[in-house]
Design brief:
Largest sheet: 6 strands, mixed
Strand order of the largest sheet: 1-7-6-4-3-2
Number of strands: 18
Radius of gyration: 25 Å
Shape: elongated
CATH topology of the largest domain: Trna Endonuclease, Chain: A, domain 1
Number of helices: 16
Distance between the termini: 54 Å
Number of domains: 3
Strand content: 15-25%
Length: about 475
Amino acid sequence: MSTILEAFTTINPEQTWLEVSPEQLEETMPSQQEYSYDVARSTAFTNRLILNAFVDWFNAESGIDEQLKVWPSLDALPSIWEIVNGTAIQLGETRVVLIPSQEIDINEFCVPAEWVDIPSWAADYYLAVQVSPEDCWLRICGYTTHKKLKQAGRYDTINRTYSLEQEELIEDLNVMWVARSFGCDRKAAIKPLPSLSQAQAENLLAQLSQRSCYSPRLKVDFEQWGAFMENENWRQHLYERRIAQAVPPQPVLVNLSQWFSNVFEECWQTVEDIFAPTELIPVLSSRNPEPDRESKLKAIASIIPLLNPHHEELLRCQAAGVLGKIGVGSHDVSIALTELLHTARDEKTRWQAAISLGKVNPNHPEAGRQRAKLIDLGIQLGGYPVALIVTVMPRTDGKVNVFLQVQPTKVETLLPPGMKLGLLSESDEMIREVEARKNALGQGKDESIQLVFSCSSATHFRVKVTWNNVSFTESFVI
């Protein structure tokens, strides 16, 4: 055992720490052809790694004579890992699901709903496993039961996961083995899933097998999805179709010049559609989210003076953000935001003025445009997604200012350390790159990472977001 792992074991003796060798890491890495997208390859890698390590540890250290079996079978695992995170193992009548995460700071244990709400998939126990391939170790943080997940877990309707705080897990696995021997009731009631006809299954198969860079698990309602996934033949057909269509598509150019004409690509949404709305300053009552015209005019009249240069820059920036929401179509707001563009002392204020002006008066020659796109780097396996935000602002010399930003979509969440945002040339040469930092405890400390640059018309560039050897790349042209 390495010195670092010995230290970890001393600090957390109740938890189970497992060491893996570089050779094991290399042998576990799936081939490009086994899965249809990068996140699935990362999912397969971490799940295969923890499965092998857990089985070896169980056989050598648990003192239990029974034999572990993979559920439903070793051959069926790729069809699961293509779609969802987690690995089930069977020990007699007891089922245990291993849920890996590469998060550095695990505060929350998230279990995909498939492992909880599909009757034939549901387990007795769920183990949270932290994976650190770079440091060659795994940590079993603790376990919980199906009953506790259903009764005390927080259900995320967007990502379809059940979650518990790490403090709610039981760290000592010996407690699990003892409870198992007593045959305690560990499962809650599960609502039966509807039956699917062959025609329904074929329609779902056609819809879900379309080539994509993310899992299709959220494309249809859970009842249909769960019934489909529960059928091993349909699940296998879905896997085979997806990898058959996994030929890398030609990169699609995002034309930023068209954004100034309010023409946006389908996957690019408004920031308000992706992020939970936040009240910048308490101008409007939360009990009246849709004020009438008179109330809006009064609010606008009270906020515009906050843009004056004698106010603090933060207040001016916040006021500009609010005006972008309530001042659509207002001539006075358009004039005030244009003035702010020219008098702002801070670059952040100038960007906010341009963005709000784009909402208030889209045809204004100085108006900016902003859109965001959800990206999946395997982070959703850890419980939260991130978004790439692109903002463009015209300049008087014909060039365009571009502001790139990556941030989590959940409030009060930090980026994981090591996440990178890179600007590349058309020939894939790295021009600039920023990386999310960590604090003294190795935890994330950045709410976002960003790059700002200017370029001329017809310039091509690429943006790359990377984390844990999984990357997302988008191509742009001005």
